Amino acid sequence: MNRFTTFRADFAASLVVFLVAVPLCVGVAVASGVPAELGLVTGIVGGLLTGLLPGSSLQVSGPAAGLTVLVFEAVKEYGVGALGALVLAAGVLQLAMGALK
Questions:
Q1: Other CB atoms closer than 10 Å to residue 86's CB: what's the count?
Q2: For the segment 22-51, what is each residue's pLDDT rounded down to a tens digit?
Q3: How many domains does the chain have?
Q4: Is there a domain that residue 44 lies in?
Q5: pTM exceeds 0.70 for this model
Q6: How far apart are CA 17 and CA 59, in angstroms?
Q7: What is the 3-state secondary structure (H, E, C) of 39-91?
Q8: Does residue 13 belong to any structural domain of this protein?
Q9: Has residue 81 been placed in a domain?
Q10: Band of residue 80 on the pLDDT scale cut at 50, 70, 90
């Protein structure tokens, strides 16, 4: 099936996930001790990137409340400044594992 054939449905689904994810991103940020603005930026950027990338029926995107503990501990241990580098490293690791199947 062509990606452009399902674009309308994929876009609508992406918009719904984005609207649900933004408040949760802000909540995770606040609960983790990070400014709410960072959660808002994370929700917007993550929503846009997820909407642009091709997906599968098994794909799950968006924040999970369980991330609060991980983000809180990372901020406590390394500070807010290191959070971007940690997220980038985790993303690179996920892409590498996906490429290696």
A1: 15
A2: 888 888 888 888 889 988 888 888 777 776
A3: 1
A4: yes
A5: no
A6: 12
A7: HHHHHHHHHHHHHHCCCCCCCCCCCCCCHHHHHHHHHHHHCHHHHHHHHHHHH
A8: yes
A9: yes
A10: confident
Burial 54-80 (b: 16+ CB within 10 A, else e): eeeeeeeeebeeeebeebeebbeeeee
CA–CA dist 55, 48 (Å, integer) = 13
Q: How many CB atoms lie within 10 A of CB 18?
A: 19
Domain range for 77: 7-100
Kindly report the number of other CB atoms within 10 A of residue 20's CB atom: 13
Q: What does the DSSP assignment read for 6-46?
A: THHHHHHHHHHHHHHHHHHHHHHHHHTTS-HHHHHHHHHHH
Structure tokens at 47: 């929503």
Alpha-carbon gap, residue 94 to 98, rounded angstroms: 6
Q: Is 2 domain-assigned? A: no
